[in-house]
Amino acid sequence: MSQTRKHQYPFVPYAPPRLPLDEGLRRGAEFHRHLDRRRSVRWFSPDPVPVEAIELAVRAANTAPSGAHQQPWTFVATQDVVVKHQIRFAAEQEERKFYREREIPEWRAALAHLETDEHKEFLEVAPWLVVVFAQKHRLRENGQQQKTYYASESVGIACGLFIAALHSMGLATLTHTPNPMAFLNRVLHRPANERPYILFPVGYPADDCEVPDLTRKPLSEALVFVGD
């Protein structure tokens, strides 16, 4: 393929195969059925998960688009029992304040049907904990700070791909966000320019795992067409 445009920076051709319409729709429908079976899990099996599964999920997350292609994410994974205990201890301290001390009745009411509380034993039961950090800025080679653009949006997209990749391997996770999460920088020795974004326990669902009986928003509420 010959280059038809002039560029100041390197560009390469992009020509993915164009699928027949029926095949594309079939793949789209199967992808939806696959993801529609995914659920967030709070009861995990302690059965080991190979490190290759974590690497593959992060490889998938790393394909996410990002503002100015700055890829402002860092995935920090641990299966160390001591580190996992430290994370659980600190997370439960924050969660205890939320459930017992803070006056936020509307938020508590919104969570009631999930039957969650300050006890987060899954942080030690799940074989892996993966914490995603958003880079607020990066350091140039000369030591100066470089702002990252659309960091939250970019990291959010990467996390979505990470979740989908785990599900494709038969693994489960939970988007856990104890607030505040600054303790994760200390426990995981991350620099100040990184902000904890989501804490993912990763593993297989427990044999007796249960999930809330929920229904997803119908397409008629999620999609709006405008114009002809």
UniProtKB/TrEMBL annotation:
The keyword Oxidoreductase belongs to this UniProt entry's keyword annotation: yes
Domain Nitroreductase: 36-204
Keyword Oxidoreductase: yes
Superkingdom in the source lineage: Bacteria
UniProt keyword annotations, A-Z: Flavoprotein, FMN, Oxidoreductase
Pfam families: Nitroreductase
Name of the molecule in the record: Nitroreductase family protein
Source organism: Amycolatopsis rhabdoformis
